[in-house]
Amino acid sequence: MPKFVIEREIPGLGASSAEELRAVSQKSRAVLDELSPHVQWVQSYVTDDKMYCVYLADDAEIVREHARRGGFPADRVNRVRTTIDPTTAE
89 in a domain, yes or no? Predict the structure, then answer.
């Protein structure tokens, strides 16, 4: 299944409480259950004003549908073509 990185612009996100982030996670999981097995959430990174999410999905449209149903922004949805890390240099 292809991997996608989703960039979500959410001003002030980094100041969210654990309870607020839990509520967002719960909403996301509920929508994922509806769309399963076509989209899977792998991990998200929270910064001051953005969230970067990694998903496995059939295509970018199902990622956008997850965002629509959950009420989340999906400002940029990019398919990962390959990965590199320090071992790539060897």
Answer: no
Q: Which domain holds residue 33?
A: 3-83
Which pLDDT tens digit goes with each residue over 31-80? 999 999 999 999 999 999 999 999 999 999 999 999 999 999 999 999 99
Task: Assign 49 to helix, strand or coil.
Answer: coil
Q: What amino acid is encoded at 40 in this protein?
A: Q
CA distances from 56 to 15, 26, 48, 88 (A): 27, 18, 25, 23
Q: pTM to 2 decimals?
A: 0.92
Domain of residue 75, CATH code: 3.30.70.3090
Rg (the chain; Cα; Å): 14
